Amino acid sequence: MEKMDISTILASAIHESKNHIGSLLYQLETLKRQPLKPDVEKAIQKVEEGMKQLNDEWVEYLYLYRLASDGYHVHYDCFSLEEFLDDQVFALSQSAIAKNLDLSFNADRNLMGVFDERLMTAVVGTAVYNALRFAKSKIELNASLDKEYLVISIEDDGPGYNNNDHQEDELLFGSNTGLGLYFAELSATAHNVEGRTGRIEKLKSNSLGGAKLAIYIPQ
Amino acid sequence: MNKPDFSDKTALLIEDMAEARIMQKKMLNDFGFKSIDIAMKAESAIEMLRGHDYDVILSDYNLGNGKDGQQLLEEVRISHLIPNTSAYLMVTAETSIEMVMGAIEYAPDGYITKPFSQAMLQRRLLKLMNNKEKLIKVNQALDEQDYDKAIESAQAVATKHPVLDNRCQRIIGDALLCKKDYHEALAVFKTCRKSTKMPWAVFGEAKCHFYLNDFDKAEKKLRQLTLDNKYFVAAYDWLAKTLIQQGHQDTAQEVLIDAVGRSPKNLLRQIELGKLSMDIGDHIMAEMSFRRAVFLAKHSCFNEASVYLQHMASIVGLARESELTSRQLDNFQSSLKKVEQNFFDSSTTRSEAYLLEMELMSAINELKTAEQIEEVWQSDIEAGKADAPDSAAQQRIHILKSAK
């Protein structure tokens, strides 16, 4: 038998699993329509939350695979940042509420940017899921324009990048080899305009005191 | 968020998977739509769209064995089965979204990725309806093909709602293209593109260059588009058209073969490849393309006699080169039969079918049969059911008779 590329196999396995999650979520919608006791309803919400996060993670891995194997074509389009960030907060608010965290966004009404919406949705989602683990009370999404670069940042009031002694930090996001950061970086650098490529920066949040991940997209 | 008011709106839901269909129907019900029609596949959706205008069309990308949601969208947009005022929301899986996004020429009004919650669908639909409401005058003008009014309205919307500026500029550029104001259109697309690679603007520029007979510039832009996005198959079509204008028929054929490989179910592209192959005398490729086209035409908006007649013509081309297999003969008969069944009301079609049949019979040395067909044709002409041969047809009859 011809030897197959293991990353391709893994990618299609993830794809399969992701589809399973999709049909389970449909089943859950049916369940949610039944009259339920409050504690059951709460449990179902948690299950739904967890499955949604799992789904989003697998989406991230699939993009990661395509980006890393040069199989992804960036699809540029123009978006209102207010609408884009509002969408992200809407999609992720349940996860934040479940952890008693405040998730909000700031963007100028008239700020427009050109980027790949699906890719940046996955990046912001990944960053927010990460911030959910460290934030004490608050996570903020910001967008602004900085010298021909659109900057989308995810900030929290947690311990920040430098003084993380959390054990789980090492797993995904803490060091330079963290999968989430690697994904954000690949997504940023996939954006390319006349020789200028995107990048990410790990910073300290001035307004919230915790970590700040800034994604620079060339305009 | 405001409670949505869909009580005066109608919806068409197109989804092949029972589970998802039931769930989405429930969601739309909860939103209070006036009516919700359901189609399980693209072919039945086309039938329903012929009879109704819907305010909202919610279609899955993946629709089983037949046409996919994107092909359905392209077909109903090209044949004006859905007005611009309707909202088309495409449901995609994360893995098929690239195919939808690559279809830049005929994009849906919005996307939603599976799995989604009821709240998410509600939000998407509301946003879509809001935008449609803001653009109502523009879309009404487009439906009336009043491009001046569309441009004027789009400029007004862009000023009032800066967020929609990009979309309005695209509408203005495309409307100018329809008006054949190519220089003005080019200026609009160039401004929109700025330094970024907005594919629709690059595509618009390429089309302007094409119409302005600047084929080298058009080729350059189109080649760039095919490199940037392998799913943007319309760029291949235009690249082939451009190459034909430049006299590179063979390269154009290669480009179309590539494009057909990427979207084998696109009828119009199969027809283009068939025509081009006929032009360069590649009857094998022509027959293959038209055979696929005949297969695809049956359930499409473009079910026209010419598809079948061209398929027959390609087999005549084959017969003149070498001996036909029995299968090829059957294919000819099968297409002929479909023409007889569906298109024989047209005297022009009837005459072309007789002529092609005569040409085939003559090519395979069935001269007696050819004569009999000519007699039938003659009596149909006398009965007013068929056209008398025009000068081109007379020429063809002369050739087939002198070839004996």
From TrEMBL, chain A:
Q: Where is the Histidine kinase domain?
A: 12-219
GO terms, molecular function: ATP binding; protein histidine kinase activity
Q: Could you confirm whether the keyword Kinase appears in this record?
A: yes
Taxonomically, the superkingdom here is Bacteria
Record protein name field: histidine kinase
Q: Which UniProt keywords apply?
A: ATP-binding, Kinase, Nucleotide-binding, Transferase
Keyword field contains Membrane = no
- SUPFAM superfamilies assigned: ATPase domain of HSP90 chaperone/DNA topoisomerase II/histidine kinase (SSF55874)
**Gene3D superfamilies reported in the protein's UniProt record:** Histidine kinase-like ATPase, C-terminal domain (3.30.565.10)
Organism this protein belongs to: Marinomonas piezotolerans
**EC annotation?**
2.7.13.3
Catalytic activity, reaction form? ATP + protein L-histidine = ADP + protein N-phospho-L-histidine
Q: Which Pfam families match?
A: HATPase_c (PF02518)
From TrEMBL, chain B:
Instruction: Tell me one GO biological process term.
Output: phosphorelay signal transduction system
Q: Which Pfam families match?
A: Response_reg (PF00072), TPR_8 (PF13181)
Which residues does the UniProt record annotate as the domain Response regulatory? Answer: 10-129
Taxonomy, superkingdom: Bacteria
The alphabetical list of record keywords is: Phosphoprotein
- List every position bearing 4-aspartylphosphate: D60
Q: Which PROSITE patterns match?
A: RESPONSE_REGULATORY
InterPro entries (alphabetical): CheY-like_superfamily (IPR011006), Sig_transdc_resp-reg_receiver (IPR001789), ST_Response_Regulator (IPR052048), TPR-like_helical_dom_sf (IPR011990), TPR_rpt (IPR019734)
Name the PANTHER family on file: TWO-COMPONENT RESPONSE REGULATOR, TWO-COMPONENT RESPONSE REGULATOR ARR22
Write the protein's name: Response regulator
User: Organism source for this protein?
Assistant: Marinomonas piezotolerans
